[in-house]
């Protein structure tokens, strides 16, 4: 497998394989649609297939790769046009939800959101992007559920698989500071607790759009 580099040491092999292959995807050396052949990667890195298999599973969980039964795993192909369309709808949903929650932020919902911010911070510290994405997506799901509008939470649940697959929430290709992205979610939570509906709506809309000054597309 071209570009993989020198053989790895025998310490935390799956983590090292993951880091090496993820780097190739982020840097564009591995293109969308390229097959991740476990035997080939293992041979090039001088390791068994077991750590490669674990690394590929992690990449699939993050959304950087897709696994197709009986065919194998491939670098994920994301349509920028579809992602932009999904993001536009997400902005509307979250702006509406944030306004509703800020007007009636109940303690239980606030604590549930705060727990997800803690999860994001811990995941960022551990370098576990898959766990970070799970917590991030759950944060925004809880926001919609806390709006007390059953149609809003239903729309989010229908969109969530596409938002994840299209990397519209917590883009795994993000190369910035994941810990700072977790902090940004803490700031968003503060806007909800402020009871200022206009401020909260504007903050969540800007976050969903990925406006300048907002960390990543969390």
Describe the structure.
66% of the residues lie in helices and 4% in strands. The protein has 218 residues and is mainly alpha-helical. The chain has a two-stranded antiparallel ribbon. It starts with 12 loop residues before the first helix and ends in a 9-residue tail after the last helix. The mean pLDDT is 89. This is GntR family transcriptional regulator. It comes from Streptomyces gancidicus BKS 13-15. InterPro entries: GntR_C (IPR011711), TF_FadR/GntR_C (IPR008920), Tscrpt_reg_HTH_GntR (IPR000524), WH-like_DNA-bd_sf (IPR036388), WH_DNA-bd_sf (IPR036390). One of its GO terms (molecular function) is DNA-binding transcription factor activity.
Give the key terms.
218 residues, Arc Repressor Mutant, subunit A, Four Helix Bundle (Hemerythrin (Met), subunit A), 2 domains, two-stranded antiparallel sheet, 4% strand, WH-like_DNA-bd_sf, Tscrpt_reg_HTH_GntR, transcription regulation, GntR_C, DNA binding
Topology:
Layout: H1 13-27, H2 38-45, H3 49-62, E1 65-68, E2 72-75, H4 80-103, H5 107-126, H6 129-146, H7 150-165, H8 178-193, H9 197-209
Antiparallel strand pairs: 1-2
Helix pairs in contact: 1-3, 2-3, 3-6, 4-6, 4-7, 4-9, 5-6, 5-8, 6-7, 8-9
Q: Under CATH, the topology of the largest domain is which?
A: Four Helix Bundle (Hemerythrin (Met), subunit A)
C-alpha Rg, in Å? 19 Å
Return the CATH architecture of the largest domain.
Up-down Bundle
The backbone outline, from C-alpha atoms, is elongated
CATH class of the largest domain: Mainly Alpha
The CATH homologous superfamily of the largest domain is named GntR ligand-binding domain-like
Q: What is the helix content?
A: 55-70%
């Amino acid at each position: 497998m071209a570009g993989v580099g020198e053989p790895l040491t025998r310490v935390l092999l799956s983590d090292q394989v993951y880091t090496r292959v993820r780097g190739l995807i982020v840097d564009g050396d591995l293109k969308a649609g390229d097959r991740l052949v476990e035997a080939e990667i293992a041979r090039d890195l001088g390791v068994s297939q077991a750590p490669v298999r674990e690394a590929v599973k992690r990449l699939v969980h993050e959304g950087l790769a897709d696994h197709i039964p009986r065919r194998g795993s491939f670098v994920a192909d994301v349509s920028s046009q579809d992602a932009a369309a999904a993001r536009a709808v997400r902005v509307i949903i979250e702006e509406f939800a944030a306004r509703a929650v800020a007007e009636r932020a109940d303690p239980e919902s606030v604590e549930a959101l705060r727990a997800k911010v803690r999860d994001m911070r811990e995941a960022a510290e551990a370098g576990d992007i898959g766990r970070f994405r799970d917590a991030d997506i759950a944060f925004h799901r809880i926001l919609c559920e806390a709006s007390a509008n059953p149609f809003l939470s239903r729309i989010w649940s229908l969109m969530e698989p596409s938002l994840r697959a299209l990397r519209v929430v917590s883009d795994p290709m993000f190369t910035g500071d994941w810990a700072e992205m977790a902090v940004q979610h803490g700031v968003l939570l503060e806007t909800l607790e402020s009871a200022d509906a206009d401020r909260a709506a504007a903050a969540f809309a800007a976050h969903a759009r990925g406006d300048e000054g907002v960390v990543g597309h969390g």
